[in-house]
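The protein record now logged underneath.
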Amino acid sequence: MNVQVGQEIPELVKQPTTRQLVQYAGAQGDFYEIHYDQAYAKSVGLPGVILHGLLKAAFLGQLVTDWLGDRGTLKTFEVSYRGVDMPGNPYRCRGRVTRVDGHDVELEVWGEDESGKRTTVGTATVDFRG
């Protein structure tokens, strides 16, 4: 197994669109207007429509599973939201290995807005058979 603490995993950059938010709302059933109605989002103090938190979590989950491939299994995954992200701006998903214990590998994962601010942070544990 060639995974070491401090190793960064390949980043994933998503380009979310308002259309994607509408599609996600339909699939997930979250029709809160802050995700598709610009006027409403601004009326509640947001800069415009924002990404669903769970969509950002899904992007970070994809980051981990893309890296993992068929070399193991995702065991645990959790995130915390620290800021808003807007469609039309890149959402950069990044991660690094924080612990290796046999086949158990822990990762720190995060999503960044276009300025590099971490707007979503989390952890994942994988059973890495690499």
